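Subject: design request, 381 residues
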């Protein structure tokens, strides 16, 4: 079913970070992305520096402020740390998409604007998402250069390019919101973007002995865009969502899931490049081996999945394989997911939630962020 907003799919994700150069270097060296574009003083942009990295259908922008008065970026980083400021969808018409959303209650950030240079023009507009996160509508059908006006070919090389790790595209983008905000944001997406609620995880669906959360997945009706939204739920100890909101200082993007066609090869490459992943207990794979519905349909070698800590969840029309990195910044907030969908898989790993969250809780305990009302950090050195 086509979208009345003319959404073609995910376009780019932009990160605000303390050091764009170092983050871009890590994205290139660890994730295998290619440095494709650059914006800064040399290109006429005086207040910020941005690096544009791509591979297959992945498009990442990392941006840092250059001047003390670039407060829109400095203030964001001071509050949230490194993270996702905005993500974009490509649309047929920015004017039409923005008008549709605005008419249905979207909070406007940037009205449709045409940005041009000698290579052509792009159209762009933006609406508000969680707190100060933004959703951008973009169309660059009439632009024949790198990313957008203000960007040019890189003026230097990191000499850090790695072989293709097999990361292909954005699969979904996950937001964490405060208690009692999940339903509001799900309705916001559904009303302003013509999305639908695809999955609704209620009390007890996502829980461990100590913590739990609620989650809804909203998506475009053609499934090109998928956006889970999580909120904390009552538990004996602090949930990962509560830790995120506390450390991030509000609601925002928790992780971006990156799709691959061969998760074993991709995770192997990422580990060689220094990417750290959450640990999965051996007992998880013992339980998988004992489930006939898993072993009869799984094409991959279970020993290889165990070796790399890859999770598996069987669905009615397929299965998914997934793995989560540790937080990539200094605060325990943003991380990546690597995911492979086999067959007609459309889920998000419900059968893996307990193993995943128990692993996260171990890291929370090391950081002293598991207890609700006190900090207890065991000495590790």
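Subject: RE: design request

Done. Sequence follows.
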């Amino acid at each position: 079913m086509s979208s009345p907003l003319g959404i073609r799919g995910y376009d780019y994700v932009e990160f605000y970070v303390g050091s764009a150069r170092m983050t871009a270097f890590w994205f290139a060296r660890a994730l295998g992305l290619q440095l494709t574009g650059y914006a800064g003083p040399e290109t006429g942009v005086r207040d910020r520096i941005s690096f544009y990295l791509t591979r297959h259908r992945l498009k990442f922008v990392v941006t840092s402020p250059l001047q003390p008065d670039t407060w829109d970026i400095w203030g964001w980083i001071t509050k949230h740390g490194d993270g996702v400021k905005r993500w974009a969808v490509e649309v047929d018409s920015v004017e039409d998409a923005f008008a549709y959303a605005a008419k249905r209650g979207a909070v406007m950030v940037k009205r449709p604007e045409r940005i041009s240079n000698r290579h052509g023009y792009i159209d762009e507009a933006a609406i508000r998402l969680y707190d100060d996160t933004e959703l951008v509508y973009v169309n660059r059908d009439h632009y024949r250069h790198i990313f957008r006006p203000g960007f040019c070919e890189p003026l230097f090389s990191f000499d850090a390019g790695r072989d293709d790790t097999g990361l292909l595209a954005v699969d979904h983008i996950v937001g964490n919101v405060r208690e009692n905000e999940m339903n509001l944001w799900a309705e916001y997406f559904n009303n302003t973007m013509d999305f639908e609620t695809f999955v609704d995880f209620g009390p007890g669906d996502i829980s461990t002995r100590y913590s739990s959360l609620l989650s809804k997945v909203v998506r475009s009706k053609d499934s090109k865009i998928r956006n889970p939204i999580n909120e904390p739920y009552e538990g004996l100890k602090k949930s990962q969502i509560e830790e995120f909101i506390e450390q991030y200082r509000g609601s925002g993007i928790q992780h971006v899931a990156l799709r691959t066609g061969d998760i074993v090869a991709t995770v192997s490459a990422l580990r060689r490049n220094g990417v750290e992943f959450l640990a999965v207990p051996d007992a998880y794979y013992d339980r998988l081996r004992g489930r006939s519905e898993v072993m009869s349909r799984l094409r991959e070698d279970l020993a290889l999945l165990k070796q790399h800590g890859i999770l598996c969840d069987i669905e009615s029309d397929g299965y998914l394989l997934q793995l989560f990195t540790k937080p990539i910044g200094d605060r325990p907030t943003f991380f990546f997911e690597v995911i492979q969908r086999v067959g007609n898989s459309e889920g998000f790993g419900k059968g893996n939630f307990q193993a995943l969250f128990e692993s996260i809780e171990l890291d929370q305990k090391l950081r002293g962020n598991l207890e609700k009302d006190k900090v207890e950090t065991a000495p590790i050195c």
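Residues 167-367 form a domain with the 2,3-Dihydroxybiphenyl 1,2-Dioxygenase; domain 1 fold (CATH 3.10.180.10).
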